[in-house]
Every structure is written in structure tokens, then in C-alpha cells.
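S1.2 Input.
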Amino acid sequence: MTVTADALHTQRDHARHLVEDRKAHYLLLVKGNQPRLHAALRALPWQRVRARYDRELGHGRRETRSLRVLTVTDLHLDFPSSRPPRSCGTAPTPAPGRSRGRPSTRSPI
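S1.3 Output.
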């Protein structure tokens, strides 16, 4: 089983519970609520990694999603069972006649 969750659940106790008690994998978003973890992931050489882009139209807007996967060793994330980080971004573009959305970048672990 793989559990995905927003940054609210990006906490060591939550990850430990998923891995040790539930025997699950996780994909958690890292934002400002984990400042050291967020800084460590942002400092990786993401610009050197080719991105995969997906584009779709839905909910009154066009969205472009990018995904980058970077293999690292000895990152010392201090997070239970962390694997190579991935960088995901969403850049919403309004459909004709709609207001503009805000782009966001998420760094899942």
C-alpha cells in the first residue's frame, strides 16, 4: 500500500507509523512546515534533471505538471525510510474567460 498526503502530514511520527505499523510506503509533500528538510531538498541540483510534463484541461483551467526524479545518496534526511526525492510542480493556466491560478512547487519524499 502507498499512502499520499499533503504537507500537513509530513511529520516523522506519521511516516514512522506508516512504515513500521502499517507496512506501507508513502509519498509526502514537503513545504515550509519542515524547514530543514525543505531546504535540503531545495538545495539539490534539480535544474540538471530532465523533467516529464503532463498537460490537461479540467476544472476551468489548463494545468501543466512537471515531475523530476533525482537519485541521491547520503542525504541524511532524518526521515523514516526516505527514498530518492522527487520534485513535482503544477503551473495552472486559466482557460479562456477564467482568472489566473498560482503556480506551486512541491517536493515529495
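S1.4 Remarks. The helical segments are 12-21, 35-42.
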